[in-house]
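new request in #modeling-help
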Amino acid sequence: MSSTETNHIIQVKDLTKQFGTFTAVDHITFEVERGEIFGFLGANGAGKTTAMRMLCGLSYPTSGSGTVAGFDVVKEGEKIKRHIGYMSQRFSLYDDLTVMENMELFGGIYGVKRRELKKRATTLLQKLKFIEERDTMVKALPLGWKQKLAFAVATLHSPEIVFLDEPTGGVDPITRRQFWEMIYHAASQGTTIFVTTHYMDEAEYCNRISMMVDGKIKALDTPANLKKSYNAASIDEVFRTLARDAQRGD
Amino acid sequence: MSTLKALLKKEVLQFKRNAFLPRLVVAFPIMIMLIIPWVTTMDVRHVNVSVVDNDHSQMSQRIINKINASEYLTLHSVTGSFDLSFKSLEHGDVDAILEIPQDFEKGFVTGRTKKLSISANSVNATKGSLGSQYLAQTLAASIKEMRARLSPAQVGDLVLIQNRYNPTLEYRNFMIPAILVILIIIITGFLPALNLVSEKEAGTIEQINVTPVSRFSFTLAKLIVYWVAGLIVITIALIVAWLVYGQTAVGSLLTIYTGAFLFILVISGFGIIASNISSTMQQAVFFMFFFVMVFMLMSGLLTPIESMPQWAQRVTYVLPPRYFISIMRSVFMKGATFYDMRFNFLALASLAVVMNLGAALTYRKRS
């Protein structure tokens, strides 16, 4: 590996996932640099979640190759998992445990020491303006707060890269703002952020964005460059131009 | 190790917070043990007999008296025509009809014997066949009595039937060890299976699968909770057997618990396989039910394996309850030792290894 390559925390080539005859992800090739906020955009059904699941070691690629945090996406899925955080599109923490118990569980799984865990969890909850809910049962929390907790859990073990699958879906504008503050904060600490979203204003906050249409990456650049090359006033317009020819999704 | 501790804490908390599970573990064995032994009796009592007496002799009268005195037979009526008795049988008031032919006594004396006939309602095959057998035995006894012109007490001396290990021939004593089998299947087979599938349905398994946690620790943490639950259930059931039915194990409790724990290992491994290959609760439950049906009906729980056809007997060698039922009955009722049952223990241990290997291999963290 050359020095420029090691700066790529994600590097994939022709990554493909087929379910029977359906090609969910069709030969995608891209790199994500260490420390950047990478926006992974696309319409519903474009294949974003499937691609993300392959990068996280939750799904085997049908073909193609790549590395995440220096580990092979095909062979070293379990090693990748030590270095990443993941927040799924569907809330998937334990409803019948409290906020703190969820954090203790996942901290324990990643081997964070007990004392260190308490400290980190408290700091995170304070930052999320959430500390007084530490002993609340998760099922009693409103959706926006559940999402905050999911983010906290995904970053608790200080991963090198965090995958966020529509973290702000169904969340109010104030919480969304808080969310992006958290994302910026994590990025400023050197954590790479890989985020999918449907909100085009959020896409503008990313360092670079990719646009996925029908399983393929149709465009990848900084928001400013994309607007320039598509001669568009906003990312929203770029997205509409690209997604117009989409065959699938809604 | 800290991973397993964190997971174990989660499982215990979830188990305790569940509104249903802790109560189930206590109430279920008590209920089952209080009810099932009374109702699953195969002893046939109160076989209603209608006698068609065409003979009206001293002999027929003696037979009728004998039936009346029997503990198992109840004299429903004495009629003069078969048709009349048959009507009662059709109505379901009578289980068996004994027809005493005309000149039965005379034929008996002259040596030209006439045959008695028994017609039993065998819609319920057990009651029908056992009922007519009881009736035949009663008849045989009275005939022997008359032939030998001996008093009933002396006849009793001639035939001595001893039922060993279950002296009163209580079916209940036979059922209690079997009930433990059912309890274990439900508590340590179904519950962990449903628990694991519910994580799939809720999506929480996704957050677990994206962590470096090994599938062994994750599954083990779940199983430990249900293993303990299973041992609690057995203990409660054994206490009820002692307090309510006065039944205690003749053999060593350690042997019983060893067998039970091995069986728990087998069944929980099986439950995990069921949940690994299912993506919904429905699938898991149907999969489990299919096998549990086979377990219940083919493992000698209700009917003896020895009376099954050869091919079926061979199949039973792969059914784990077969070995556990055999251990339970032998140790509980006859006082068999670990050494006596070594083949069964070995078989259970091997099945435990196979099942849990299967459980480990079918768990996929990745699709």
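bot summary: The two ends of chain A are 42 Å apart (CA to CA).
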